[in-house]
Write a structure and sequence with these properties.
Elements (H helix, E strand, L loop, with lengths): L2 H19 L4 H5 L25 H37 L1 H15 L3 H12 L3 H27 L3 H8 L4 H37 L11 H8 L8 H35 L1
Helix pairs in contact: 1-10, 3-4, 3-6, 3-8, 3-10, 4-6, 5-6, 6-8, 7-8, 8-9, 8-10, 9-10
């Protein structure tokens, strides 16, 4: 295991620990103390305080809870939809593959984040609408990869034998196809999680995501920009939190991808 991977695991473990203890400090997220406004990071408040004297550290942790929950829901739903569409297209072939392939191409033709911004603007701000907006554009990567991987394995010997024996298509896909394509899809899911975290932060930064009083990393950064010149920690701290999680997830994704590729080379 490389040093980068160890650091990534340590960072994610630290965030998981913080999220686990966050409910015990729920009052600290909203506790206002006007005598401690704009305190710089220090011993008393190690991430500083905001414009209302609230602990920025606990608000960053609360924002992590919102951002990660939204991202996990989006990735789970889009993975299920995208894999189902991609596998169906490749397995059935013919006009179904042609139709679904064209639908995938149409979505790929539009920048995903711009489409998500447009949808969020139409639907209005809110957690539910953010999930819908990101979900509409998030399934495409899974569908494209699942289709390509299924096309690559559908003619393998054991799959062909199962088809020749009259095994139902759903059973073949579940027992023989999905296990073969699961590795690349897990890697795709890892990178998708990091991308959705950034996208959710972007929507919240634009005022289209999580609304006050609930904090999210994007809204914390947006609110902090008003005081950037004399209280830069209001932007730097949530920005570093976002950066640490995204980089850690991407490093783990790289590690998973490398292991899968080595396994394929050994198997070949």
């Amino acid at each position: 295991m490389t040093l980068a991977t160890r650091l990534a695991i340590a960072v994610l473990a630290a965030w998981i620990t913080a999220l686990a203890v966050a409910p015990a400090a729920a009052d600290a997220v909203t506790a206002i103390d006007l005598t401690r406004m704009f305190e710089a990071p220090g011993v008393a408040a190690w991430m500083g305080t905001d414009d209302l004297g609230r602990s920025l550290a606990w608000r960053v942790v609360a924002g992590a809870r919102v951002s990660l929950l939204v991202s996990a829901v989006v990735v789970t739903v889009t993975a299920a939809i995208g894999i189902a569409i991609g596998v169906t297209a490749a397995w059935l072939g013919g006009w179904i593959d042609l139709l679904l392939g064209r639908v995938i191409d149409v979505f790929l033709a539009f920048p995903g984040i711009l489409l998500a911004i447009a949808l969020a603007g139409v639907l209005g701000p809110g957690v539910g609408n953010v999930i819908i907006a990101l979900g509409v554009v998030g399934w495409v990567g899974f569908a494209r990869l699942a289709r390509a991987q299924t096309l690559a394995v559908r003619e393998r010997d054991h799959v062909a034998v199962a088809r020749a024996l009259g095994t139902p298509g759903f059973t073949i896909v579940y027992r023989h196809v999905l296990p073969l394509i699961a590795g690349p899809l897990v890697v795709e899911g890892t990178f998708a999680l990091a991308a959705v975290i950034v996208a959710e932060a972007g929507l919240s930064f634009l005022g289209l995501g999580v609304q006050p009083p609930a904090p999210s990393w994007g809204s914390l950064i947006r609110d902090g920009t008003r005081y950037l010149l004399f209280a830069p920690h209001l932007v730097v701290m949530p920005g570093l939190a976002l950066l640490s999680v995204v980089v850690a997830i991407n490093l783990l994704g790289d590690r998973l991808r490398d292991r899968i590729q080595r396994g394929h080379r050994v198997g070949a």
